[in-house]
Design brief:
single chain, 352 residues, alpha/beta, FAD/NAD(P)-binding domain, 2 domains, five-stranded parallel sheet, four-stranded mixed sheet, elongated, disordered C terminus
């Protein structure tokens, strides 16, 4: 049985940053993730996607963010159980928990922090009769390697941040990028909407709104799509393409976690905003998997939630100990092996 101070379910950016904050408090962490490598969606779905809202980074690729987080937590030597899904949780008489994975691996900890992102998920697919025929043959629901689209004709459908960001990014990669959205208004960041409009004005992106992909054509590989433009009169436009990428988001599912006795609201775990604890004392939820009034699903917010969670976890584990606030600039960060590393610009808590 694996024993640790904080058992983190989910090794995405929020879960990884929680290791850093816990490490500053000299708390040991172990992470469980169903994916075969750390990083969550950033590593599995869009490692080459640029992220623009991480403080101190005007732009950082999702994969690079994960790599940096892994370097940041290296001094604290976290453990990982990868390629296994957390299935069951049992609360013991002493208040600690045993979490067992689908492969039977057992973990014991006084604190469980659920940082599972959107949980298990699958892409939302457009209702097109023959779309399955072209999956992996011109149709993809996520972009892992943008070089696949180098000098190709690409049609992206969607109106959220992913559709906007990838349209902007691929404008300098693909030979032709067309963005199709069923409304004139987009749901993404205003800055991204303005960039798309600027690229359209420069002739680097074709923008069709309001419009909808209504048919796919081709033999072994996708060859063209039919776009129905809905203005004052309906107009059908046939576009020759190499790739069609519908980015309509993901359908999240909590999976086995939904049977853990936690309070669930709209497929997310309800928490308080004091320390992001659930209705089960000792079980926290941080990042995209939680919900509370005013919740924003941003990595930045997950980092904040992880920080406060670790403070509360320390107080639960050591109710009689006190600590004072200092900074890592005072003396660097000490790893569990006694090694000293250059101090990152973050707050550290010195235990008394």
């Amino acid at each position: 049985m694996i024993q640790t101070d904080i058992l983190i379910i989910g090794a995405g950016p929020t879960g990884l940053f929680a290791v850093f904050e816990a490490g500053l408090l000299q708390l040991k962490c172990h992470l469980i993730d169903a994916l075969p490598q750390p990083g969550g969606q950033c590593a599995e779905i869009y490692p080459k996607k640029p992220i623009y809202d991480i403080p101190g980074f005007p732009e950082v690729l999702a994969g690079d963010l994960v790599e940096n987080l892994m370097k940041q937590i290296e001094p604290f030597q976290p453990g990982f159980t990868l390629g296994e899904r957390a299935d069951t949780i049992e609360k013991l008489e002493d208040g600690s928990f045993i979490v067992t994975t689908n492969k039977g691996t057992q973990h014991k900890a006084p604190i469980v922090a659920i940082a599972g992102g959107l949980g298990s998920f699958e892409p939302r697919k457009p209702l097109l009769e023959n779309i399955g025929k072209f999956e992996d043959n011109g149709v993809a629901y996520m972009i892992k390697d943008p070089e696949v689209y180098r000098d190709k004709k690409v049609v992206i459908a969607g109106g959220g941040d992913s559709a906007l960001d990838w349209s902007i990014f691929l404008a300098d990669v693909a030979s032709e990028v067309t963005l199709v959205h069923r409304r004139n208004e987009f749901r993404g960041a205003l800055d991204s909407v303005e960039k798309v409009q600027q690229l359209k004005n420069k002739g680097k992106i074709n923008l069709i709104t309001p419009g909808e992909i209504v048919a796919l054509h081709g033999e072994a590989h996708l060859e063209s799509v039919l776009v129905r433009k809905k203005t004052t009169a309906v107009e059908d436009i046939k576009l020759e393409v190499d790739h069609f990428i519908p980015l309509f988001g993901l359908s999240p599912k909590l999976g086995p976690i939904s049977d853990w006795g936690l309070e669930i609201e709209k497929n997310a775990i309800k928490v308080n905003t004091f320390d992001y604890q659930t209705n089960v004392p000792g079980v926290y939820a941080i990042g995209d998997i939680n919900t509370y009034p005013g919740k924003l699903k941003l990595i930045l917010c997950g980092f904040h939630e992880a920080t406060l969670m670790c403070q509360s976890a320390y107080q639960r584990i050591f109710p009689d100990k006190k600590y004072v606030m200092k900074y890592t600039t005072v003396g660097g960060v000490s790893g569990f092996d006694g090694s000293k590393k250059e101090a990152p610009k973050a707050v550290v808590k010195a235990i008394e």
